Amino acid sequence: MQSKKKSLEIETLRGLACLLLVLYHVIGPLGGGLKIDLGSPFRVLADSMVYVRMPLFTFISGYIYSIYKIRGNDFSAYCVGKVRRLIVPLFFVGIPFSVLQVVGPGVNKEVGLIDALLSFYIPVNHFWFLQAVFIIFVFVGFLQWRGLLQTATRLYLLFLFSALVFLLPPFSVDAFGINGAVYLLPFFVTGMICHEKVSALKQSLKVIGPVVFVLISAVLLYVAAVDRELIVDRRSVVGLLVGCMSCVALLSTDMRSKALIWLGGYSYAIFLFHVLFAASSRFALGRLGVTDDSVLVAGGVLCGLLGPVLLSNIFSRFTLTSILFLGERVTRKKTPAVGLKVPQS
Fold first, then answer.
1. Residue 235 is part of which domain span?
2. Where are the transmembrane segments (predicted)?
3. How many domains are there within the chain?
4. Per-residue b or e along 280-300, where b marks 16 or more CB atoms closer than 10 Å to that residue's CB
């Protein structure tokens, strides 16, 4: 097992996850984002990310959880920490963002005011991840607290349970993002398992792992280009296998990039605010008469990544804004907001 020292390969993957997330939301789903039509290379690229984007974010969260997992009898403090880190920004960033969509110019997604105000209960935007991962942290943390995840066998049983519920039909009402939690849980547990076996994985998969990821990426790109309907169902056996295999293969590459590590240090702020900056870029370039997809995508990605970095550095300077908008601790030194790893309180 690795120590609590920052893992450079995980920080690199965190930065990669940010890049994939922002790129996807800039391009957008069919009819959203830049409204890029079928047949475009950007549409193919966006569709091919479906099985990797959020599984990778969640895989990293599970991996990091295994480093800082709950110990002893501090479950209540653990939950308070998760509320601060995830639920407080949900109210002070997520709901205002959803309300802004109601009145904002050039918004593709139509959101009613009541839906926006109730988005803490029924998710309407990418903030569903906060609700979903909060449920996962509390659920897994409770099991850990009760001593039910002390062996590798129990972790594998938890993965089996998560895979089974993953394949069940979704709940009719997505209360507090429960469907998102069910979707993400297998990837979170995979991250936990990989942390426990990381040295063996890197040794045994150091050659085949990168090859597997390249093959998976090539197949996804091909299928997205030929028939996108074959890969849009995330909660499927294929979605489960491809998501888990991609995350494990990426970890086994032991990839390290200074640029991605730097970007990964701001991953939480990027997650929270990237859509705001990406949409602003699309609106501004549109008003300037820019129509070239390549320029629009590049501008959106650049703004979606660097805008939140700037905002994070501003918010981190003040206690109130760092708590409300970044979920940071009151006593924490003013440093860039680290990603979706949720530290203990």
1. 8-263
2. 12-30, 50-68, 88-107, 127-143, 155-172, 207-225, 260-283, 295-315
3. 1
4. bbbeebeeeeeeebeebbebb
